[in-house]
Design a protein that fits this description.
The protein is an all-alpha fold and 57 residues long. It has a domain of 29 residues. 51% of the residues lie in helices and 0% in strands. Keywords: Membrane, Transmembrane, Transmembrane helix.
């Protein structure tokens, strides 16, 4: 970040930008981690199973 400020002719790098970049990197890491560890959705059941101990008829 210091080099960017030097290249742009700034004395200091704006703290809002630094904070925004930090949160963007953290957010991207969280999203990537959730995406890589996601599980396949279980198949949907067409009907509800009867309760245990009850007999239908």
């Amino acid at each position: 970040m210091i080099r960017i400020a030097d290249l742009m002719g700034w004395e200091k790098f704006p703290p809002e930008w630094s904070l925004g970049i930090t949160f963007a990197i953290l957010g991207a890491g969280v999203v990537f981690s959730l995406w890589k560890t996601r599980q396949a959705e279980p198949p949907h059941k067409a009907s509800v199973a009867p309760e245990h101990g009850r007999q239908e008829g």
